Amino acid sequence: MTDSLSDLPNRRALHAEIQSYSAKKEEIAVALVDLDGFKMVNDLYGHAVGDKLIRECAVILEEVCGEETKPFRLGGDEFALCMSGPLCGTILEGVCRNLLERLVHPIPIDDRRIAVGASVGLSRSSGTDGLVSSELLRRADVSMYVSKRGGKMRCTWYKPDFDRNLEALRDLDSEMRTALLNEEFKVHYQPLVDAQSGKVVAVESLIRWNRPDGKPIGPNVFIPVAEESGLINAIGLFVLRQSCTDAMDWNGIKLSVNISAAQLRNPEFPIQLGQILEETGFEPERLELEITETCLVLDPVVAERSLDVIRGFGVNVVLDDFGTGYASIGFLRQFRFQKLKLDRSLVVDSADDESSRAMMLSSISMAQALKMGVTAEGVETEAQADLVRAAGCDQIQGWLYFKAMPKEEIAQHLSALEPLPINEIHDLQRNAS
């Protein structure tokens, strides 16, 4: 019962090992180890390099395990560790932390140095509680996903709350599927204005969800669940199609739609985008897709391929939340964004903090040097608007001008594109709210 690639014992061997410990009524501890970033290695360098990385990780596992802990390969990029006896949980956690420390350093493969991390979930049995091997592994698996959601490169012990939280997430996922069928999701739009004239030049589509009982559920709650369950693709296509349909007659202004990392990783997304543009008749040159740095870092090869196709349609690509990550000039040049959106935190902090202001000014200068437009989002005060306007931002978005509103209300604000005095914009906003 040996895995042919790594020469480690396989999943069947692990179950047999746990069953033998259970038969002796011994305390058992199990760790499930999932490599972070392994898919990216396969995409960038090919499966031959990925196989070599698996073998090197197996060697590292054997080294950190020593004689007391046994390593196993379960398949793909999943490994497991198992041991029994008094204090086995404490010892196994120490082994796992040693493993994470080893994986901080890149692993040499041929002429490359490949960085890969790991997320670890741990579970234990007293040996007399009747837990079978499949349940121990299930608990370790649940804990491993908690480690991934918590930021990766960490160890997490199983807690009963994890199952209750998982059940709540499953319930929310089921509710979202019903909501999608029953058209409970709605799209609202927040206008962006020209920094100099105050004229509305674009709108950003934002999804809203009110349950049948009237209770609103924020996107910060349901979007992460949708991304994890895979429902984000269906929800994202709904927002894109609805937005293109609604914006068809909005006087030629730009339409910005947010695209999640999961959508961009889907190789079918560019095809689906093309179909929506064809079905709705929406002009590709009016569409801006907003993506975050995370979308690109997670899977840069697939992202770049998709973006090349998307740009081929004539669609613009915008880097959202700029100032919260680590995007370099090389990164910006590689992906050829048409526009940067400065994150709200950068705008707010710039009013009172010199270092934040310097960062904002340098970001704008860099964008201008790369022929990119710049939008400041989250602007709520006149002082912030004056600051970003003087700094050279092209567009401003925020509650100072408009909140997000349904399509029925936004029509009155988009019926004319003549420049509006700031006081008139504020009057319109107060009337809409």
SSE blueprint and pairings:
Elements lengths: L10 H13 L4 E9 L1 H8 L1 H19 L4 E6 L2 E7 L3 H16 L3 E3 L2 E3 L2 E9 L7 H17 L5 E3 L2 H22 L3 E10 L5 E11 L5 E2 L1 H11 L2 H15 L7 E5 L2 H5 L3 H12 L6 E5 L1 H6 L1 H13 L3 E7 L6 H7 L3 E4 L1 H7 L3 H16 L3 E4 L5 H10 L3 E2 L8 E2 H8 L7 H11 L1
Parallel strand pairs: 6-7, 9-11, 11-12, 12-13, 13-14, 14-15, 15-16
Antiparallel strand pairs: 1-3, 1-6, 2-3, 4-5, 8-9, 8-16, 8-17, 9-10
Organism: Pontixanthobacter luteolus
Protein name: EAL domain-containing protein
InterPro entries: Biofilm_reg_signaling, EAL_dom, EAL_sf, GGDEF_dom, Nucleotide_cyclase, Rev_trsase/Diguanyl_cyclase
- Our count of helices gives 18
What kind of sheet is the major sheet?
A: 8 strands, mixed, barrel
CATH superfamily of the largest domain: EAL domain
Number of domains: 2
- Using the coordinates above, name the CATH class of the largest domain: Alpha Beta
Report Rg.
26 Å
CATH architecture designation of the largest domain: Alpha-Beta Barrel
Approximately what portion of the residues adopt beta-strand conformation? 15-25%
Helix content: 40-55%
* Strand element count: 17
Taking pLDDT < 50 over at least 5 consecutive residues as the criterion, the unreliable ranges are 416-423, 428-433
Please list the strands of the largest sheet in the order they lie side by side: 8-9-11-12-13-14-15-16
User: What is the CATH fold-level name of the largest domain?
Assistant: TIM Barrel
Average pLDDT figure: 87
Structural category is alpha/beta
The first-to-last residue Cα distance is 67 Å
So what's the overall shape?
elongated
